Amino acid sequence: MSLRLSTLRPLVRHPALGSRGGLSFFSTSTPQHTRIRSTLTTSRPKRTQPSVQHPKQEVLPPTQPTPDAASSTPVSRITPLRPSETQTHGSNAFKGETTRHRQSNQHHQNQKGQSQGRFNPWLHHIYESRRAAIRAFFLGSIVSAGALGIYNYASGPITGQWAQLQQDFFSLAKASLTQSLGNSSTDPTAPLPGLSNGAPRAFSGAPAEKPLTVGRFEKKIRMLSSEQVEERLAQNQRSYRIAPTAVAERKDKSKQDLVLGYCINQVASNNPVEDDLSGHVVRGKDGSIEKVFFGIFDGHGGWCCSQKVAQELAPTVATELESVKDRHDIMATMEAIENGFLKLDDKIVNQTVQTVLEFPSRPLACSSLLPAIAGSCALLAYVDTKEKDLYVACTGDSRAVMGVYEPSANGGHRWKAVPLSFDQTGRNRWEVRRLQEEHPGEENTVVMRGRVLGGLEPTRAFGDARYKWTAEIQERVFQLFPSYRQPHRNFHTPPYVTAKPVVKHHKIRPEDRFLVMATDGLWDKLTSEEVVQLVGDLLDGKKGEEQVVLDREELGLIKSKIQSLKGVITGKKEDQNEESEELTPANLPRKGPASQIRQFTFKDTTNASTHLVRNALGGGNDEKLAATLSIPAPMSRVYRDDITVTVIFFGQQDTKEALSGAQHNDGLVDII
Fold first, then answer.
1. What band does 130 get if pLDDT is binned at 50, 70 and 90?
2. Which of 142, 425, 432, 513 has a 20 to 30 Å separation from 536 between CA atoms?
3. Structure confidence at residue 177 as a pLDDT band (50, 70, 90)
4. How many Å is the Cα radius of gyration of the chain?
5. Is the pLDDT of residue 294 over 80?
């Protein structure tokens, strides 16, 4: 393609840029009127005067007087004015219509309609863009300077003058808010700390004092006093003595004396507390106690699930036990207890969600799905007073330990801890093996870092529908419950968590003196042996304080030696010794109390549960106990968990002092 020189556009000066010398590579004039000048200083050719007569224009020096306005036309000292501009300039000077932006637009429109070189939109766009960039630069500079000032004001003074200004500002703020807040600690008539004799002090480079803090914005953690500590520990403590009925009304005189009484206590860390407990009873026609149920429930993700399980688990299990024809059939009884657990969990997790999906409603979903979305461990002890059988069903990581009285050869005795449950968590090698077998192909993801799918620590629990519902159901629930969390990325073959308990049977003997049931908040601070020894010493009447050294490594060696000796004697290993085979995932601390010097005290002689809670949180170290209880929720969750303890006393032992503060009623809820 050939290119003729005559078609090239000349470089012209755009009239909108005035004397700034802006150049344009664009022009809308025709080639016939195009004229290339040798220099930019050459005067512009004279144009044909338009038909409209312009007023006479002249430029006057600064010292020359202006002609009389009545006898001459207005004169501009800057630029020639068009007739239309002359009228607006005289009447609307320094108004919004004569701003730079409006003058530029008007000038461009006039040039477009009256000049031979028409208006160039491209150059106008570049010009306006430059002006917008300049305005944005200055605006950004102002905002940046303001943000820097606010940051320096909030974080602390940089110079002495700024420090003094900050101090004076807080002083004035405190004085102005004194009357509205009713703060009697500040005298409004006194000179302000930031002022000298009521007058502002001169700014100086001297170091400033610490800024004052307005009372209502102040946050402090105050140490509880000894009286407040005692009040906090005794807030939820209860003790009950189970009194036998009249001898004439009882057919079996010994069965009612099996359970002498029990004591409970609960110290919260979460607000509200997520733990719960229960006590239910089935009475005979003569009013005698036939079946007793004690429950401990450790909730997580809220309290909704633990509360519901505490209310309904024992009645559900009691209903299943009615189908057992022979009370001596241990296996049938254990199966009935398992069925009761599974039926209640199916009701919480599956039946409620089916109802919600059949009748979609956000209020219905929020009210009925909370127990399913939350979770709870469950520990249930069922006592058959007639057969003297004890069944302990555990779902989760709560623990039950029997305190056994063993006479010694020298006439004394010792207290032995017999575990009746084991912690069902991702640290238990039996549970890890079970989950890997139930989910083939997911051996590396089903338990990660000691948790199910890397999230949930207990491997068995009520609720926790996030680990039980299918992905399709969870997606539909998410539409009704927007705050519901999505399933884990390794979620493939649900359910991963079950409520099926591990049930153990124990025949109650004369040497079995008490049973301790507690949530993992207690076992994180004390070992099973320490708990049994503390309660045993309390029953023995021990007073004062005691200092012991906990060495878990040495304790583990002793246990392994005992197990090996049992294997040599009996010829077989003890079945399911999960506690001694605890796994410790990489980069995680070992679960349970750490090796340290421990100070135990024996103050709470009337309530064994309070006695255990006190020694778990500080014992004889009063300052440690007060500091631990002083930390408010939710910060306290880092240092301690909710603690719920129930201690049940059996047999013909002397428990007068341990149950001296017991109430007259048994505190049990009747199952009809």
1. confident
2. 425
3. low
4. 43
5. yes
Q: Are residues 233 and 288 in the same domain?
A: yes
Residue 145 lies in a domain: no
Query: 178 is in which domain, residue-wise?
Result: 156-205
Query: How far is Cα 380 from Cα 390, in angstroms, rounded to an integer?
Result: 10
- Tell me the per-residue pLDDT of 243-253, one tens digit each, with 9 for 90 and over: 765 443 445 55
Model confidence at 496, pLDDT cuts 50, 70, 90, reads very high
Q: Which long-range contacts (CB under 8 A, 24 or more apart) does 626-629 make?
A: 626/223, 626/224, 626/225, 626/226, 626/229, 627/223, 629/224, 629/229, 629/232, 629/233, 629/267
46 inside domain: no
Could you tell me if 161 and 299 lie in one domain?
Answer: no
User: Cα angle vertex 33, ends 27, 36, to 5°?
Assistant: 70
pTM above 0.90, yes or no: no
The per-residue DSSP string of 202-265 comes to PP-SSPPPPPP--GGG----PPPPHHHHHHHHTSS-EEEE-----GGG-S-TTGGGSEEEEEEE
Whether residues 645 and 582 share a domain: the answer is yes
Rounded Cα–Cα distance for residues 329 and 342 (Å): 20
Task: Check whether 259 has a pLDDT greater than 60.
Answer: yes
Which amino acid appears at position 567 of this protein? G
Q: Position of tokens 């999505």?
A: 486
Report the alpha-carbon distance of residue 251 to residue 12 in Å, rounded. Answer: 122
Answer yes or no: do 301 and 450 share one domain. Answer: yes
- Report yes or no: 16 and 108 within 8 Å, Cβ to Cβ: yes
CA nearest neighbour of 672 among 280, 251, 249, 311 = 280
Amino acid at 431: E
Separation between Cα atoms, residue 162 and residue 165, nearest integer Å: 5
Which has more confidence, 455 or 37? 455
Domain count of the chain? 2
pLDDT band for 456, please (50, 70, 90 cuts).
Answer: very high
In a shared domain, residues 515 and 624: yes
At 409 the pLDDT is: 84
| 55: in domain | no
Burial status of residue 415 (CB atoms within 10 A of its CB: 0-12, 13-18, 19 or more): buried
Burial status of residue 194 (CB atoms within 10 A of its CB: 0-12, 13-18, 19 or more): buried
**11-20, 328-337, 484-493: range with lowest mean pLDDT:** 11-20
Q: Are the beta carbons of 329 and 374 closer than 8 angstroms? A: no
CB 359 within 8 A of CB 342: no
DSSP state of 488: P
Instruction: Dump pLDDT digits (tens) for 154-170.
Output: 554 445 555 665 566 66
